[in-house]
What we know:
CATH architecture: Sandwich
CATH topology: Jelly Rolls
Oligomer: single chain
Bound molecules: 2-oxoglutaric acid, fe (ii) ion
Distance between the termini: 41 Å
Structural class: alpha+beta
Amino acid sequence: MSHQSNMVSGHGAEEVYDQKQKVNAAVAEADVGPPSSSSPPAAVPDIDISCFVFPEKASEKDREKVICQVLAACTDFGFMNVVGHGVPQPIIGGLLAALSEFFKSPVEQKDTCMSSSQHLTNRGYIHYKVESVNAFFDRHGPRDLRESFSFGPADHQNGRPYGTNTYPDFIPNFRPCIDAYYAEMERLEKVMLEIFTLALARASRQPLGPGYLQQQIQPNRGLMKAGWYPACEEPSAEDVHLGAHSDWGPFTILLTTAPGLEVCVKSEEGVAQWRSVPVIPGAFTINVADQLACWSNDRFVSCVHRVAHIASNQPRISVPYFSTQILPLDFVETADKKVVCICAPGERPKYEPLSVRGYLKRNWEMYSPKGGG
Ligand SMILES: O=C(O)CCC(=O)C(=O)O
Ligand SMILES: [Fe+2]
C-alpha cells in the first residue's frame, strides 16, 4: 500500500484501534478486584529529563539512561513522574492561582466563559456534572464530578487559524498566566516527543530520526483542560470523580495538586487492579495515550485510568495537557497523514495506519451523541 513504509510488512490483516473495547475490558476486570486502598501505590518511576531540556550540559550517557527509563515506563504501564522539565515554578504557581480564582467565582460569572464547540474539540468553561466519561463508554455511573475550563494555543502558528480561547474579564492577569503555561507545555511536548521517538526507535530497532513523531503530529496543537473537583469529605466507595478511560492523543502531561488519580495495572498474578498514582511535588505525571500506543504497535501502553474519591476538605485542581488534540481550522482532508505502526524487523502491524484527525473524528462521532447532555 502506498502509505506504508518499509517498516511494516503490510499483509492487510490489521485491525482498527478500538478504544472502547480495550478500556471496558480492563475496567470489567479491575472493578471486581481489591479496592485501591488495600493495595500499595502504583510503581510510577520518577524520571529526570534535564539532559534533554538542557542538552548543552548533558552527556550521551545521560541521554541513554533517560531513553532506557522512558522506554521501561512506556512498556510497563505507560506512566512516569517527570522532573527536570524546566517549567519555572512561578508559571505553575501563577496558573494554579488564576484557575483557583476562576473556579471559586460565582457561576453567573463563569457562565460568561461557556464552551463553544470548535472543530473536534471544546474550549471554554463546562459546568459540574455535564460531561460523562461513563456515558461515553456505555457504562452506568455518575456524570463527571468536575467542572472544567479548556484552552488551546493563544496565537496562530505560521499564519494558520486554530480557534480562539475565552478568558474571563473579571480576573486581572488571567490571560498571561494561562498563555505562559501553555507555551511551556508546547516546549515540554517537543522534548517528550523526541524522547518517545528515541525510545520507540530503540524498542523497534528502526532508524527513526529524533524529529519523527514531531513530524507525524504536525500541524496539530495541544488542548489544556483545567479540571476542578470540589472538596468531598465523605467519599462513596462506588462512585468515582472521573470514570475510567484512556487518553486519545499520543500522550498527556498532567499537573495536579492532590492525590486521586488511579491507574489500572496488572498485579504480580496478572490480574488487573486499581492503584493510586503518587503525587510528587514539582513533577508532571506524563502518560502514553492511545495514538502512541497504536503507532508503537502496542509496545507502549495507553493505560486505563480514573479519578477516585479521596476524602478532603480542599478542592482538587488538575490540568491535563493533551498533546495533538487541536487541528487547524483550515485543515483539508487531503492533507491528512496516516501514521503507520512502527514494527521491529519481521514483525506485523497490529493496526491499520492511524491518522490523528481520523482517530479523533471517529471517537467524537462514536461518543458525542451520548456524552454531552
Ligand atoms: O484529574 C486527573 O488527575 C486526570 C484527568 C484525566 O485523566 C483526564 O482528564 O483525561
Ligand atoms: Fe485521562
